[in-house]
Write a structure and sequence with these properties.
nine-stranded mixed beta sheet, BirA Bifunctional Protein, domain 2, elongated, 38% helix, five-stranded mixed beta sheet, Rossmann fold, alpha+beta, single chain, 2 domains
Length: 468
């Protein structure tokens, strides 16, 4: 955030002066071309990796009827929804606030059939109103995965392993996953006899690690000191295996507490045996921001990003709000935060890449379009440009244009000395730019027939595909 003049941050490291803020709603994104290419590449890499695990992409509606989706949304989230009236029916519509609730509704309606387990992935934008001072976006780009119909430690481990591999796949090397079980802390509150309202407020305080507020709530609820001590200690129980040992001391013989720890221990051991211990830390006060989580949960953090990059967990009863209960778990990643964690902003050289620049005099527009179209069939990134130069100045102007867009190859159509079936090819020089001297004779150029050029480009494509 710049200090002078005041700026409003938009995703992916782009900023705009305060003068322009009124042109874009607060918390909404304008991602400029260089950053947009990185963002789309991230999304594609993430979806490709979950596809290798057998997760099928689902495309979700941007709008939902409020009364239909409301069972899967807690009251706080409904308050944050953007709502408007459907002109056709008069019913209240909402912009998508949560993809997991939409998937739960889709599965409960039987739209996915009866085959279980289901492995689904998605790329979606969710919209939630957040106060401006909270510093959170209101338009959130997400990629996520859901494993529906499996209820064991192996399925919990699968979804967390998939998350870890996704982060590694896109190049994030330094990150930590906070791993917990919401059932542990909730069971401590139930054992202490808190009222339903007191439980909710205590969970919110624990999620923020606000121990003074938590202590105040326990006092208001007149919780016995021995139970209050365990509740106040749990949010600070963070670390490795020793956390589980202390948790068992706090649990005593309480069945629900022991069961939560047993499940968390099994998942932790499986992840450690797979070699992920360095990326994990246990947190017995771990909570996600949604009430539907009821089992193993997790958040992922990276250095340099002050909020979680994403997370997820088990929600065995969410689908049941729309029909019958089906055990499920999943995760979602905030693509913009992941972008920041990878520190891709400002890395524009790859985003500006052009494989081939095809240029011609303005009078040769028809031939320019034809040659560029043929070259695009080789899957190269081809840009076409008509120049005002002609004659002996055309090649110099073409080389300059190639430098500006960092083109690997420049193709000059209708240059002096070339027949109607030939073009001039300027290759990228040894210093990473099209060779150019002080005159035409010093340019690194060669003449080539259009037919041979297209054939060579296609052979290059075929060779790359065989390599892949």
């Amino acid at each position: 955030m710049a200090s002078a003049p005041p700026t409003h941050r938009v995703p992916s490291g782009q900023t705009h002066p305060l003068r322009e803020r009124s042109l874009v709603p607060v918390g909404m994104a304008t991602i400029l071309p260089e950053a947009a290419q990185h963002v789309r590449r991230l999304e594609t890499q993430l979806l490709a990796h979950v596809d290798r695990w057998g997760y099928d992409e689902i495309i979700l509606p941007t709008f939902e009827y409020l009364d239909v989706l409301a069972p899967g949304l807690e009251p706080d989230l409904i308050e944050k929804c953007y709502k408007f009236v459907d002109r056709t029916t008069g019913r209240i519509l909402i912009l998508r606030p949560d993809a997991t609730a939409q998937i739960a509704r889709t599965v409960a309606m039987g739209m996915m059939g009866s085959r279980l387990p289901l492995r689904l992935s998605y790329r979606a934008t969710v919209f939630r109103y957040e106060p401006e001072h909270a510093g959170r976006d209101r338009e959130i780009f997400q990629v996520g995965a859901e494993l529906i119909g499996a209820d064991d430690a192996t399925s919990d481990t699968e979804i967390i392993t998939l998350l870890i591999e996704c982060l590694q796949q896109v190049g994030l090397r330094s990150f930590k996953i906070s791993l917990g079980h919401v059932g542990f802390f909730k069971s401590l509150l139930v054992r202490a006899g808190l009222s339903p309202g007191g439980q909710k407020r205590a969970e919110q305080a624990a999620a923020r690690k606000d121990l003074p507020k938590l202590q105040e709530i326990l006092a208001e609820e007149r919780v016995m000191k021995k139970f209050a001590r365990a509740i106040l200690e749990a949010p600070e129980l963070c670390g490795q295996a020793e956390v589980l040992a202390r948790g068992r001391q706090l649990a005593g013989n309480e069945k629900t507490l022991v069961q939560s720890l047993d499940r968390l221990t099994k998942v932790y051991q499986l992840l450690c045996s797979a070699g992920y211990q360095e990326s994990l830390f246990l947190d017995l006060g771990e909570f996600r921001g949604f009430d539907y989580y009821d089992g193993v949960v997790f958040d992922v953090f990276a250095e340099g990003v002050g909020v979680e990059l994403g997370g997820g967990g088990r929600y065995d009863h969410l689908i049941g709000r729309f029909g019958r209960n089906i055990p499920s778990t999943g995760f979602a990643l905030n693509v913009d935060r992941l972008f920041r964690g990878l520190n891709l902003s400002g890395n524009t050289s790859e985003a500006a890449r052009v494989d081939v620049l095809v240029v011609a005099p303005r009078a040769s527009a028809k031939k320019l379009i034809s040659v560029a179209g043929q070259l695009r069939q080789s899957s190269k990134r081809v840009v076409q440009q008509a120049l005002s130069a002609s004659g002996k100045d055309l090649i110099d102007a073409a080389a300059e244009a190639g430098l500006r867009v960092q083109a690997d190859t420049v193709i000059v159509v209708d240059a002096d000395g070339a027949t109607s079936e030939h073009v001039i090819v300027i290759q990228r020089g040894a210093q990473g730019s099209p060779g150019r001297g002080n005159g035409r004779s010093r340019l690194n150029t060669k003449m080539m027939s259009i037919k041979d050029l297209v054939a060579r480009m296609r052979r290059t494509r075929a060779g790359a595909e065989r390599t892949l």
